[in-house]
């Protein structure tokens, strides 16, 4: 039997049990932090030599130079052309849809002339420019993710980023052809088979071989997350991602096998992933529980799924769908499925979610691969204040200000008055010089 928790929103201790279920240790693990800090400092100081040593130690690669850790463009192209036709067509179709979606996100520069009589001749605006160079961290190890290559690289390319540097760990030297093919398809400039904190350090500080980037994007394990957190400020980062999450709100009329498999879809990522169901129908919840038991043995990653469901999964009975939406907003899940008859009508009640999957036929897995929107989403409740990865994450906004001679007198008086009030006389005099002229 799967020991997945049962909760009922009508119970007196529901709130505390829900809080305990949602709790995820976001504070830094001292052992991880100590290890990561040492690796970052070492790579910053010794560059390639340190990266080589850590790659030999952690990934078991017997290499003597950084050149052996860079995958040439020819190998990327060979991987793309060597794919089975069905895989290549699926990869190309997904890339096309992801690109089409993200092309609609592009920010544009703009400016306007101030039409106030006393400040006429003043131009204000905003200039949009892409980042010069971005580092893409693509996970390896337990699983490989060509979809992550598409989701990170395509919006960067749409934004106009000049150079893409990809790092991907290859434990024991095992390379995933789909990952390399995806890199070729989206035009990644350089690929290094390194991972972990040492890869983050190489991207953040630069080494003799790995160029320093302006921003690092892409998910990784706890060491990668800790490293990204520490190098923020030296470079930009997208987010510090927690374990994968899915929350399904169901009215009790979807095939329970569908919902069970949707819950599995995130649970199979790792043992700390979270899969939750909110439903007002107690009998249906038991049907989903039975489906979980029936389908689990058919899953190759059944041990990981079982651990995730028992650690952080739950089947939650709610009073009604309105309450389900309120609870969903409190949780602010990474992925939210509205498996409902009139799903569109309920979207307006959802304020906090990384992505909303509307209707019974919209499985979360489509969003992971080929629907179009980005699958790099806020986790651990951070959807309350952050957004999916997008083109805007690879573009900078620069303010434009041009003040005419006449306008400098009017604006100068305002600025000087406020500057004196703040005790900053140099600021005030800088403005007053223009008034006096």
Uncertain residue ranges: none
Oligomer: single chain
C-alpha Rg (nearest Å): 26 Å
Helix segment tally: 17
Percent helix: 40-55%
Intertermini distance:
84 Å
The computed structural class is alpha/beta
> What is the β-strand count?
15
- Largest beta-sheet details: 6 strands, parallel
Mean pLDDT: 95
- Side by side, the strands of the main sheet go 1-12-11-10-13-14
What coarse outline follows from CA principal-axis ratios?
A: globular
Percentage of residues in strands? 15-25%
Can you describe this structure?
This protein starts with a strand and ends with a helix. It has helices at 14-22, 30-46, 48-59, 73-81, 85-102, 146-159, 177-186, 196-205, 222-231, 256-267, 282-295, 302-312, 321-331, 343-346, 364-369, 405-421, 425-436, and strands spanning 5-8, 70-71, 110-113, 123-130, 133-137, 163-167, 190-192, 215-217, 236-237, 245-250, 274-279, 314-317, 335-339, 355-358, 395-402. The chain has 17 helices and 15 strands. α4 crosses α7 and α6 (146-159) runs parallel beside α7. Helix content is 45%, strand content 16%. 42% of the residues are buried. The protein is of the alpha/beta class and 437 residues long. α14 (343-346) links the parallel β13 and β14 (355-358).
């Amino acid at each position: 039997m799967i020991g997945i928790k049962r909760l009922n929103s009508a119970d007196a201790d529901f709130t505390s049990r829900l809080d305990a279920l949602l709790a995820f240790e976001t504070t830094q693990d001292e052992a991880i932090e100590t290890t990561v800090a040492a690796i970052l400092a070492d790579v910053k100081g010794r560059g390639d030599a340190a990266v080589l040593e850590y790659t030999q130690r952690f990934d078991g690669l017997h290499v003597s130079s950084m050149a052996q850790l860079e995958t040439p463009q020819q190998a990327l192209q060979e991987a793309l052309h060597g794919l089975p036709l069905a895989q290549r067509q699926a990869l190309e179709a997904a890339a096309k849809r992801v690109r089409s979606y993200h092309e609609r996100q592009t920010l544009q520069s703009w400016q306007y002339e101030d039409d106030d009589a006393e400040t006429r001749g003043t131009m204000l605006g905003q200039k949009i420019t892409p980042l010069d160079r971005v580092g893409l961290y693509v996970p390896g190890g337990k699983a490989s993710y060509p979809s992550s290559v598409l989701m990170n690289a395509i919006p960067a390319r749409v934004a106009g980023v000049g150079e893409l540097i990809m790092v991907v760990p290859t434990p024991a030297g095992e390379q995933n052809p789909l990952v390399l093919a995806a890199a070729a398809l989206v035009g990644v400039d350089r690929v290094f088979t390194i991972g972990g904190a040492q890869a983050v350090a190489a991207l953040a500080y630069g080494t003799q071989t790995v160029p320093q980037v302006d921003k690092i994007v892409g998910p990784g394990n706890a060491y990668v997350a800790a490293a990204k957190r520490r190098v923020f400020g030296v470079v930009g980062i997208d987010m510090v991602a927690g374990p994968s999450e899915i929350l399904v709100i169901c009215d009790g009329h979807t095939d329970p096998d569908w919902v069970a498999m949707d819950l599995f879809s995130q649970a199979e990522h790792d043992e700390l992933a979270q899969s939750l169901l909110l439903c007002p129908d107690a009998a249906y919840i038991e049907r989903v529980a039975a489906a979980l038991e029936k389908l689990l043995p058919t899953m190759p990653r059944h041990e990981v799924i079982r651990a995730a469901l028992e650690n952080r999964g739950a089947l939650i009975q709610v009073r009604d769908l309105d309450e389900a939406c309120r609870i969903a907003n409190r949780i602010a899940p990474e992925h939210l499925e509205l498996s409902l008859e009139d799903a569109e009508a309920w979207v307006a009640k959802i304020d906090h979610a990384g992505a909303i999957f509307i209707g019974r036929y919209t499985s979360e897995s489509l969003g992971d691969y080929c629907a179009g929107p980005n699958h790099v989403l806020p986790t651990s409740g951070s959807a309350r204040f952050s957004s999916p990865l997008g083109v805007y994450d690879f573009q900078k906004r620069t303010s434009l200000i041009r003040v005419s001679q006449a306008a400098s007198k009017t604006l100068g008086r305002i600025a000087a008055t406020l500057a004196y009030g703040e005790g900053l006389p140099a600021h005030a005099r800088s403005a007053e010089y223009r008034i006096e002229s």
